[in-house]
Amino acid sequence: MKDLTTRLASGEPASGDDGASQYLTFRVADERYAIDILDVKEIIEVGRLTRVPMTPDHIRGVINLRGRVVAVVDLGARLGKGVSTLTKRSSIVLVEVASNEVEANGEQQLLGMLVDEVNEILEIAADHLQPAPDFGTEIRTDFIHAMGEVDEGFIILLDVNHVLSVDELARLGEMAAAATERPAEV
């Protein structure tokens, strides 16, 4: 298997002749997940994150990416696994997701996903993909694109557009802001 950075930079095709697709694997809260490599724009080290007041816990903050402000979502918190602890292996996976606002223009929103560590690129054949189970997972089933059969069992393939739904994240942020503005009822 080629080095991750080399494969991303080389622009190798993300789908093989046998209908296999490539997936970027990473760890969050000691669990292994993957996303379609075609969703990945860039992987960067965690730098200076600026916290934004009145945002939910899963919005870790924003970064300055070459002059562009990019929101970073703590994937552990978003998946209900708790807020991630930053380590030397923590990374931000940059992806573009659709939103209702920008979809009309054909544009997408750049977001960062904070993960505990990036692992490798796996190739998984289409016949090794199983539908998401209706129960038995600790994360929302609409976040799961499929279950990928790999040597050591299954890996959860996340649906980036659901996990990082810009519209849902905005609604959650508005609810968090509203909750802090009004006093708790007794």
Give a description of the structure.
Helices cover 19% and strands 38% of the residues. The protein has 186 residues and is α+β, with helices and mostly antiparallel strands. The protein has a single domain, classed as Beta Barrel (OB fold (Dihydrolipoamide Acetyltransferase, E2P)). The strands form 2 sheets. The chain has a 6-stranded mixed beta sheet with strand order 8-1-2-11-10-9. The model is unreliable at 1-9 and 182-186 (pLDDT under 50).
Could you give the topology of this structure?
Elements: H1 4-10, E1 21-28, E2 31-36, E3 40-45, E4 59-65, E5 68-74, H2 75-78, E6 91-97, H3 100-103, E7 109-115, E8 117-124, E9 129-130, E10 144-150, E11 153-158, H4 160-163, H5 166-181
Parallel strand pairs: 2-11, 5-7
Antiparallel strand pairs: 1-2, 1-8, 3-6, 4-5, 6-7, 9-10, 10-11
